Amino acid sequence: MTAVANDLRTGRDLVDAELFDSITEFVLIHFGETERNRAERITDQALAFLATVGTATVKMVPSDDVDKGLHAFILHTRDYREFCEANAGRFLEHNPRPGGGGRVLEEVQGTARAMKAARFMVMDDLWTVDGESAAQCDSDCGRDYRAA
Fold first, then answer.
1. What does 8-49 look like in DSSP terms, one character per residue?
2. Distance (Å, rounded) from C-alpha 53 to C-alpha 122?
3. Among residues 107, 120, 117, which one has the least CA distance to residue 146?
4. Which residues have C-beta within 8 Å of that of residue 97, sequence separation ≥ 6?
5. How far apart are CA 16 and CA 26, in angstroms?
6. What are the pLDDT digits (tens) for 66-79?
7. I want to staple 129 with a disulfide (CB 3.0 to 4.6 A). Which of 38, 51, 105, 140 is the partner?
8. Strand-pair partners of 35
9. Cα–Cα distance between 10 and 42 in angstroms, integer?
């Protein structure tokens, strides 16, 4: 059976409109996105990513784009904690590992597949890794979000 878009969940549906808009604003203001629609899509995928972590059986690694949404949400500490507990079953620590290397494309692709298996709509264009730049972020590239 093939799922159609109407059968799929979205990250946006997991939070109220006010919180979604606030996270999106952080993506716009603090993480360099200039288009609101793209920032909303990033926020949606970050929420879906976090909700999938609790049941995933593969290493969960966000893409470069989705990482912006994760960091924006983490800055909403109380809401982030409540979301993690409700959707992943526990608080998902942000555990920086400086110098740990870049994201591995296959792990990011596996993450997107896990989200699809969890019946989330995955916006494939946001699930990429820039191999030439090694996809470096400043804190926790490649850390498995399932780990405590």
1. SB-SGGGS-HHHHHHHHHHHHHHS----HHHHHHHHHHHHHH
2. 14
3. 107
4. 139, 140, 141, 142, 143
5. 16
6. 999 999 999 999 99
7. 105
8. none
9. 12
Q: Report the C-alpha gap between 36 and 5 in whole angstroms.
A: 22
User: Which residue's entry shows tokens 């969890």?
Assistant: 118
Q: At 107, phi and psi to the nearest 5?
A: -70, -40
Kindly list the distances between the CA atom of residue 137 and the CA atoms of 13, 62, 112, 133, in Å, as whole numbers in the listed order.
28, 11, 19, 10
Which tokens go with 104?
């591995």
Tokens standing for residue 122:
């995955």
Residue with tokens 């296959």: 106
Helix (H, G, I), strand (E, B) or coil at 104: coil
